[in-house]
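Pipeline run #58 for the internal structure catalog. This entry was flagged by the ingest filter as a single-chain record with no existing model, so it goes straight to prediction. Upstream metadata was stripped on purpose; only the residue string is passed forward. Reviewer on rotation: M.T. Logging verbosity set to normal.
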Amino acid sequence: MKELDLTVLFVDTISARIYLALLKKYGYRPKKILAIEIEPASRKYLLLKKFFGRLIAQTAYRILRKKTATPVFSTLSKQLLKEHKLTPECLQADLNSYTKSPVENILINGLDDERLIKHLAKSQEPRAKSQEPRAKSQEPRAKSQEPRAKSQEPTCLPAAVY
Protein backbone atom coordinates (compact mmCIF):
# COMPACT_ATOMS: atom_id res chain seq x y z
CA MET A 1 0.00 0.00 0.00
CA LYS A 2 1.14 3.51 -0.76
CA GLU A 3 1.24 5.77 2.29
CA LEU A 4 -0.13 9.27 1.74
CA ASP A 5 1.27 12.21 3.69
CA LEU A 6 -2.22 12.83 5.04
CA THR A 7 -3.72 13.22 8.47
CA VAL A 8 -7.39 12.24 8.51
CA LEU A 9 -9.57 13.91 11.10
CA PHE A 10 -12.03 11.06 11.59
CA VAL A 11 -15.54 11.53 12.97
CA ASP A 12 -17.25 8.15 13.15
CA THR A 13 -19.93 8.44 10.46
CA ILE A 14 -20.89 6.25 7.53
CA SER A 15 -19.45 8.69 5.00
CA ALA A 16 -16.13 8.81 6.88
CA ARG A 17 -15.94 5.01 6.93
CA ILE A 18 -16.70 4.90 3.19
CA TYR A 19 -13.85 7.38 2.63
CA LEU A 20 -11.36 5.20 4.51
CA ALA A 21 -12.64 2.01 2.84
CA LEU A 22 -12.14 3.59 -0.59
CA LEU A 23 -8.60 4.64 0.27
CA LYS A 24 -7.84 1.09 1.37
CA LYS A 25 -9.53 -0.48 -1.66
CA TYR A 26 -7.43 1.56 -4.08
CA GLY A 27 -4.17 0.82 -2.24
CA TYR A 28 -3.66 3.97 -0.21
CA ARG A 29 -3.40 4.60 3.48
CA PRO A 30 -3.16 7.87 5.40
CA LYS A 31 -0.07 8.53 7.45
CA LYS A 32 -2.16 9.23 10.52
CA ILE A 33 -5.76 8.98 11.67
CA LEU A 34 -6.98 11.25 14.43
CA ALA A 35 -10.32 9.93 15.73
CA ILE A 36 -12.31 12.91 16.90
CA GLU A 37 -15.14 12.66 19.36
CA ILE A 38 -17.07 15.86 19.73
CA GLU A 39 -18.03 16.56 23.31
CA PRO A 40 -21.82 16.58 23.65
CA ALA A 41 -23.55 19.77 24.67
CA SER A 42 -26.59 18.05 26.17
CA ARG A 43 -27.76 18.95 29.64
CA LYS A 44 -27.36 15.37 30.94
CA TYR A 45 -23.76 15.19 29.75
CA LEU A 46 -22.89 18.56 31.27
CA LEU A 47 -24.35 17.48 34.64
CA LEU A 48 -22.42 14.20 34.55
CA LYS A 49 -19.25 16.07 33.67
CA LYS A 50 -19.77 18.59 36.46
CA PHE A 51 -20.27 15.99 39.20
CA PHE A 52 -18.11 13.06 38.03
CA GLY A 53 -15.54 14.54 35.66
CA ARG A 54 -15.01 14.35 31.92
CA LEU A 55 -13.76 10.74 31.74
CA ILE A 56 -16.73 9.18 33.53
CA ALA A 57 -19.22 11.43 31.74
CA GLN A 58 -17.70 10.58 28.37
CA THR A 59 -17.74 6.84 29.07
CA ALA A 60 -21.34 6.88 30.35
CA TYR A 61 -22.51 8.95 27.40
CA ARG A 62 -20.75 6.65 24.90
CA ILE A 63 -22.38 3.55 26.44
CA LEU A 64 -25.80 5.21 26.48
CA ARG A 65 -25.46 6.32 22.87
CA LYS A 66 -24.49 2.81 21.70
CA LYS A 67 -27.48 1.24 23.45
CA THR A 68 -30.06 3.78 22.29
CA ALA A 69 -28.85 4.76 18.82
CA THR A 70 -30.22 3.01 15.77
CA PRO A 71 -27.93 2.84 12.76
CA VAL A 72 -29.12 4.97 9.87
CA PHE A 73 -28.04 3.88 6.45
CA SER A 74 -28.92 6.64 4.00
CA THR A 75 -29.75 6.31 0.34
CA LEU A 76 -26.54 8.16 -0.52
CA SER A 77 -24.49 5.68 1.52
CA LYS A 78 -26.14 2.74 -0.22
CA GLN A 79 -25.52 4.34 -3.59
CA LEU A 80 -21.83 5.01 -2.80
CA LEU A 81 -21.32 1.44 -1.58
CA LYS A 82 -22.93 0.03 -4.71
CA GLU A 83 -21.05 2.36 -7.05
CA HIS A 84 -17.65 1.50 -5.55
CA LYS A 85 -18.44 -2.20 -5.06
CA LEU A 86 -18.14 -2.09 -1.28
CA THR A 87 -20.22 -3.98 1.26
CA PRO A 88 -21.47 -2.82 4.65
CA GLU A 89 -18.94 -5.26 6.14
CA CYS A 90 -16.14 -3.19 4.58
CA LEU A 91 -17.20 -0.34 6.85
CA GLN A 92 -16.88 -2.45 10.01
CA ALA A 93 -13.08 -2.71 9.79
CA ASP A 94 -11.04 -1.60 12.77
CA LEU A 95 -9.57 1.89 12.32
CA ASN A 96 -6.07 0.58 12.99
CA SER A 97 -6.30 -1.52 9.81
CA TYR A 98 -6.24 1.65 7.71
CA THR A 99 -2.89 3.05 8.90
CA LYS A 100 0.53 1.93 10.14
CA SER A 101 0.66 4.29 13.11
CA PRO A 102 -1.83 3.81 15.94
CA VAL A 103 -5.06 5.78 15.77
CA GLU A 104 -5.07 8.67 18.20
CA ASN A 105 -8.31 9.65 19.97
CA ILE A 106 -9.16 13.16 21.05
CA LEU A 107 -12.24 14.70 22.67
CA ILE A 108 -13.00 18.21 21.44
CA ASN A 109 -15.79 20.80 21.47
CA GLY A 110 -15.52 21.62 17.76
CA LEU A 111 -13.03 21.84 14.89
CA ASP A 112 -11.74 25.17 16.24
CA ASP A 113 -11.05 23.69 19.70
CA GLU A 114 -7.69 24.64 21.20
CA ARG A 115 -6.97 20.99 22.14
CA LEU A 116 -7.20 19.91 18.49
CA ILE A 117 -5.02 22.78 17.28
CA LYS A 118 -2.36 22.04 19.93
CA HIS A 119 -2.45 18.32 19.13
CA LEU A 120 -1.96 18.91 15.42
CA ALA A 121 0.84 21.43 16.06
CA LYS A 122 2.56 19.00 18.46
CA SER A 123 2.40 16.19 15.92
CA GLN A 124 4.07 18.44 13.32
CA GLU A 125 7.07 19.34 15.54
CA PRO A 126 9.04 16.09 15.08
CA ARG A 127 8.58 16.32 11.33
CA ALA A 128 9.78 19.93 11.23
CA LYS A 129 12.84 19.06 13.33
CA SER A 130 13.74 16.10 11.13
CA GLN A 131 13.64 18.32 8.04
CA GLU A 132 15.99 20.99 9.43
CA PRO A 133 19.29 19.13 8.79
CA ARG A 134 18.32 18.43 5.20
CA ALA A 135 17.57 22.08 4.59
CA LYS A 136 21.00 23.15 5.92
CA SER A 137 22.90 20.65 3.79
CA GLN A 138 21.23 21.66 0.54
CA GLU A 139 23.19 23.92 -1.77
CA PRO A 140 21.70 27.28 -2.75
CA ARG A 141 19.84 27.31 -6.05
CA ALA A 142 21.09 29.26 -9.00
CA LYS A 143 19.05 32.31 -9.95
CA SER A 144 18.29 30.92 -13.39
CA GLN A 145 16.44 27.93 -11.96
CA GLU A 146 12.75 28.14 -11.16
CA PRO A 147 11.87 28.64 -7.50
CA ARG A 148 10.78 25.63 -5.55
CA ALA A 149 7.14 24.86 -5.05
CA LYS A 150 5.73 25.29 -1.56
CA SER A 151 6.86 22.62 0.85
CA GLN A 152 4.51 19.70 0.98
CA GLU A 153 3.00 19.74 4.43
CA PRO A 154 0.60 17.03 5.49
CA THR A 155 -2.94 17.82 4.58
CA CYS A 156 -5.55 17.65 7.31
CA LEU A 157 -8.97 16.90 5.91
CA PRO A 158 -12.09 16.11 7.86
CA ALA A 159 -13.31 12.70 6.85
CA ALA A 160 -16.91 13.79 7.11
CA VAL A 161 -18.60 17.05 6.27
CA TYR A 162 -21.05 18.39 8.83
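catalog note: Residues 2-127+153-158 form one domain.
catalog note: The beta strands are 2-11, 28-38, 104-108, 155-158.
status: ready for reviewer M.T.
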